[in-house]
User: Fold this.
Amino acid sequence: MRTTLALLTGAFLLGNGGFMLVASAAWYAAVPGVADTGPFNPHFVRDIGAAYLASGVVGCPAAAGLAGGARRGRQGQV
Assistant:
């Protein structure tokens, strides 16, 4: 369950970050409530998109590590 949740979160972060980097204006228009926070700033949206993308790049291999740990068992834990 944790592995599935981690993979889904990583995939969401990768997708959202990619969307923010590739189509900043479309992302700004598509996400409800974002336009209420102020005017569109493409540089800011791309910076945050890069952070989302980096988090997804780190998160997906971490999820794979969770899956590997589940297969090995929990030896050494009290």
